[in-house]
TrEMBL record:
GO terms for biological process: CMP-N-acetylneuraminate metabolic process; N-acetylneuraminate metabolic process. It is an enzyme of class 1 (oxidoreductase). Belongs to the CMP-Neu5Ac hydroxylase family. Its EC number is 1.14.18.2. One of its GO terms (cellular component) is cytoplasm. This is Cytidine monophosphate-N-acetylneuraminic acid hydroxylase. GO terms for molecular function: 2 iron, 2 sulfur cluster binding; CMP-N-acetylneuraminate monooxygenase activity; metal ion binding. Residues 13-111 form the Rieske domain. It comes from Mastacembelus armatus. It catalyses: CMP-N-acetyl-beta-neuraminate + 2 Fe(II)-[cytochrome b5] + O2 + 2 H(+) = CMP-N-glycoloyl-beta-neuraminate + 2 Fe(III)-[cytochrome b5] + H2O. Pathway: Amino-sugar metabolism; N-acetylneuraminate metabolism.
Length: 553
């Protein structure tokens, strides 16, 4: 399926315009639709691409720091693209830009041609059938967890229903309905979008494995397997199905689904289209550029993340420019950019109904109060208001835990107040008790593990991890909850160029990172071979870097 491509001419220039193209970077706009392109004229001829950054779709401008006239810089996050190689140079070692074919015509004119695969959801299209009241119901449970009732079947997305995520950094904001775990255990299909613990929650799945280990779970065929940790976790699940991207999976005559990959994190992130009787529900989850930015128009229901704040940057950074006021300004601007990006994306896709979700977490542990106060997130209502300002054709829904959308009613009459059933007024919306000690004590038990009595555990661990041949020196300080050195903690250097463990900082030129990691979380990650995302996305460390650049690797 992937090899079928169709060619589309996206821009034509006449001979005179071509003769006026200067060496290096040329920005060109299609006068008809306003779309922007970049044409690079080099010694080898022409190269071209869309004027669109691969990260979040920002526009490129000339990079004034580049005297060679080859690179452009994105106005959103300062990513840089070298047009002579079509490689991104900031962040280094990261992405390739998608190129357009350049056709030179006999009369000296030029055409830019885009080769695109056919959109996979258009394979075998189905006419939408009328939905009865009660036939398709969408229930919001908490965070990114939705239950879809589609005729006789129940499909659940990303169940995180108990315990923390990212070690001990994220806790559920919303109190899910009392029967949420029962619903999970009764689901006919469960989709887990990616390996992060606010979507793949082992405390939640432990309950499922005890009650129904053969529940059918579906994940995309990412190069980093979603369930890489399953054996270690001791959670017994026996019906995990890895599904190829971009292919309809038929469940029964009316129900099918398709999993697609993310353009920015294809090794990890996925999104999904579910179709019932010709009605499409699109869930882009956490994808930065879902399906590389190609998505179906006019779906019946679209849901996506919206909140931001799902990263340690810049809250956990110290030194240099990272004052509280710089962070506050940066976060405010960053959230605004994200809100605009999501609103424009929704407007461009014109779904009939839109629901923001997957941003409902809180840094509830008392030791993370600074993060909770600094890491201001977008509100779902603010995004919906912005969408309603841009267009009047999209019905927006801010879900409360336990709220139910009846898709048939909402499509027949978007103004029908009975299309959405909210939880009773007495229902508890926000969580106020998280069993902190239960989970934090378990992490801290790692501190006294036998392995840490051996001084060579450090060398053993980093050799096992295998990251090297990169000019980076890291100082690692194990700390208490306040990021002060822990009495039992280690303080050591790792030189990743040759994977050595020097006692003093090398005197050659190198990138330097200083990490202060909470000892319980760090050692739990070491013992279990876990992801450093637990430390970074979970706000469990403090970071200083010199020079202050982002290392994509």
């Amino acid at each position: 399926v992937g090899s079928v491509k169709y060619a589309k001419v996206v821009l034509s220039l006449d001979a005179e315009t071509v003769s006026l193209l200067k060496d290096g970077v040329n920005f060109k706009k299609d006068p008809e639709n306003g779309k922007c392109y970049i044409i690079y004229k080099g010694t080898e001829g022409f190269k071209a691409c869309r004027n669109q950054c691969k990260h979040q779709g920002g526009l490129f401008i000339k990079d004034i720091e580049d005297l060679g006239g080859r690179t452009v810089k994105c106005t959103k996050h300062n990513w840089k693209l070298n047009l002579s190689t079509m490689k991104y140079v900031n962040p280094p070692d990261s992405f390739l830009q998608d190129e357009l074919e350049v056709e030179i015509l006999d009369d000296g004119g030029l055409r830019l041609v885009e080769l695109s695969p056919l959109d996979p959801w258009l394979a075998d299209p189905r006419e939408p059938l009328q939905l009865k009241e009660g036939e398709v119901k969408v229930t919001y449970l908490t965070h990114a967890c939705m239950e879809l009732q589609l005729g006789q079947r129940r499909f659940m997305f990303d169940p995180w229903l108990k315990g923390p995520a990212f070690a001990r950094g994220w806790w559920l904001l919303h109190e899910s309905p009392a029967d949420a775990l029962d619903r999970l255990c009764a689901a006919d299909l469960i989709y887990i979008s990616h390996m992060h613990s606010d979507h793949l929650s082992y405390p939640t799945l432990k309950v499922l494995s005890e009650r129904r280990p053969d529940a059918p779970i579906y994940v995309g065929d990412t190069s980093r397997p979603v369930f890489w940790y399953l054996e270690q976790s001791k959670v017994q699940l026996t019906n995990i199905n890895v599904v190829p991207f971009g292919v309809w999976q038929n469940v029964d005559e009316h129900l099918r689904f398709m999993i697609m990959m993310d353009g920015v994190h294809p090794e990890m992130d996925t999104c999904i289209i579910v179709e019932y009787k010709g009605h499409m529900i699109l869930n882009t989850v956490d994808c930065t550029r879902p399906n590389g930015g190609r998505l179906p128009q006019n779906v019946d229901l679209m849901m996506s993340d919206f909140a931001g704040g799902a990263s340690g940057f810049p809250m956990t950074f110290y030194g240099g420019k990272y004052s509280d006021s710089w962070k506050a300004t940066f976060i405010k601007n960053e959230r605004k950019k994200l809100l605009n990006y999501k609103a424009q994306l929704v407007k461009s896709l014109q779904p009939k109904i839109y629901c923001p979700f997957a941003g409902y977490f809180v840094e509830a542990h008392p030791s993370d109060r600074y993060i909770k106060e600094t890491n201001v997130k977008n509100g779902a209502d603010a995004l919906n208001a912005q969408i309603n300002n841009l267009t009047s054709d999209i019905k927006t829904w801010t879900p409360k835990p336990g709220a139910v959308l009846d898709l048939g009613l909402a499509l027949t009459d978007p103004t029908n107040s009975e299309a959405i059933t909210n939880p009773p007024a007495s229902a508890k919306i926000y969580k106020d008790n998280w069993d902190f000690d239960l989970y934090v004590d378990e992490l801290n038990r790692a501190i006294s593990c036998e392995i840490f009595k051996h001084p060579n555990w450090i060398q053993f661990y980093y050799t096992w991890a295998g990251f090297q041949n990169y000019n980076l020196v890291v100082r690692m300080i194990e700390t208490d909850d306040n990021f002060e050195p822990h009495p039992l903690g280690c303080d050591y250097l790792v030189d990743f160029l040759d994977l050595s463990f020097p006692t003093t900082i090398p005197d050659r030129e190198h990138s330097y990172l200083e990490l202060k990691n909470r000892v319980g979380v760090m050692r739990h990650v070491v013992v279990h071979g876990g992801l450093w995302d637990d430390l970074y996305i979970g706000f469990q460390n403090r970071i200083s870097r010199d020079p202050d650049i982002y290392h994509h690797k």
